[in-house]
Design brief:
The chain is mainly alpha-helical. It has 2 domains: 4-76, no CATH class; 104-180, no CATH class. Helix content is 52%, strand content 11%. It has helices spanning 38-43, 47-50, 67-78, 81-101, 112-135, 143-170, 176-180, and strands spanning 4-5, 11-12, 15-21, 29-35, 60-62. The chain has a 3-stranded antiparallel β-sheet with strand order 3-4-5, with no helix packed on it. The chain is elongated and about 85 Å long.
């Protein structure tokens, strides 16, 4: 059973129906509120600060339609388990913010494959930046240009390693030209 305590310390469990709300389901629901006894509120010295109700009427405190869920969320937030969750969320939100800084909020290209390529390139730059900062390779003299040069050299090394792996490990020497062959015409074949 739920109760409500006023600033003067009075407790009530009286629920009354007030107004109506429309949640996301689109159907109206009747609202609920705790109501304090009018005689108790009339005798209270905090009445002027607490309520604007007329004489003989007590204060009402509206309940949120999802009050139980809110109470559970507040209890979880006060628990020690929430601290670990908050640290994980903070780290992931920082990564997402970095991706937005690198331009993934708006796609530069049409099509899923090109948009995926843009997201992967931004993630690669974000990860290389993170690694370079952790290893102490970024932030030295030369400013942003030196940092950009360092990132591009790491990126070039990464692509060289990927290409070497594809051509040496996956494709035998005879199949290299077949692997590189264009399977469909370019963007403007009649140009």
């Amino acid at each position: 059973e739920m109760t409500c305590t006023c600033p003067a310390g009075q407790v009530t469990g009286t629920l009354v129906t007030v107004g109506r709300t429309m949640p996301r389901t689109g159907e109206y629901e009747k609202g609920q509120a705790f109501q304090f006894d009018g005689a108790v509120c009339d005798a209270c010295e905090l009445r002027a600060q607490c309520s604007r109700a007329g004489p003989g009427k007590g204060r009402t405190v509206s309940l949120h339609p999802q009050e139980r869920l809110l109470q559970e969320a507040r209890a979880l937030q006060a628990s020690p388990d929430f601290q670990q969750y908050q640290r994980m969320r903070q780290a992931s939100e920082h990564r997402l913010a970095r991706m937005v800084q690198l331009g993934v909020r708006k796609a530069r290209y049409f099509g899923r494959s090109k948009t995926l390529f843009q997201a992967l390139m931004a993630a690669t730059v974000a990860n290389l930046t993170l690694i370079a900062r952790k290893t102490g390779e970024m932030g030295h003299e030369g400013g942003a240009r030196a940092d950009l040069g360092l990132l591009l050299s790491h990126l070039a090394g990464l692509f060289k390693g990927m290409i070497d792996h594809v051509f040496v490990q996956i494709c035998p020497k005879a199949d290299i030209f077949r692997f590189m062959a264009i399977s469909r015409p370019g963007f403007r074949p009649s140009f």
